[in-house]
Amino acid sequence: MVGVKTKILAIESSCDETSAAVLDGRVVLSNAIATQTVHEKYGGVVPELAGRAHQSNIVPVVDLALREADTTLQELGAIAVTQGPGLMGSLHVGVSFAKSISMALGIPLIAVNHMRAHIMAHFIGATEDSAMPALPMLCLTVSGGHTQLVLVDESFHMSVIGSTIDDAAGEAFDKAAKVMGLPYPGGPEVDRLAETGDASKFQFAKPKRNGLNYSFSGLKTSLLYFLRDEIKKDPLFIESQKPHICASYRKAIVDYLLLVMGDAIAQHNVKSIALAGGVSANRELRRKFIALGEAHQMESHIPPFEYCTDNAAMIGIAGLFQWRNGQIVGLDITPQPALKIE
Question: Measured between alpha carbons, how far is 182 from 177 in angstroms, rounded to an integer?
């Protein structure tokens, strides 16, 4: 329709990535991300430092996203922002900025659930008419803070049918990396080293089955005890066996993730499966996930690498579907660090 503004500015600031994106319908015009390096020397995200970095990054990142999309503020039809879950200080920066833009331009404000957005990243299209995953869909969402099995029905309603009862898969990777002295962020480094290792070299305790729920604490403890015992025999064990340790540990986590997902596929009548979250960038997980879909003769969907980790494009696509359904919010919204997907 002539005169209708279809572009969305999206902002993501839930943890340590400051990101802004511009979408026109389902098409991503830009997706700018500023990664915070300040946390590297601490081996993990420091909430107070993250909040300060977001304050420094938010204006230049939004400016970059608008310039790369060749879009002015006056062309925007709505603004979407991560409301939660995430770090309170980090979320506050993004929500406050989005509220200011909404009020200044008089455009709708859309509050997005970060975990729903990871799943909705699968609906980004090269064009507005690009094919979308078949629904109902089962999505495995794996990140540093979450491990969930989520059912998405034909109306895009999401139900969590399984989740971790302790650590998340991403946390299990990061803790292992820290023990082995690998640089932060550890998960990608474990994946990189594992590519040249022998995954059958070492065995770790298999996690206990608990329905469709996950538990990674036992597997993590198994690795710690294994390394402790081996270092007693050979102080240089980690250094000499690093790729094999990483490959074996990665295999244990990936096999467990997909074993439970296979159970979920057997229990629910889904037409497609999907992978989401930062850990979906893991190469072994991607390979075996595709094989799982082939084994069950159904579509399998994995976002491009740029949409796997925290980014604003996924916030934008989630916001688009909410905007089209009339799900806008007022300027009285507040950050929700523990916001649930349902």
Answer: 5
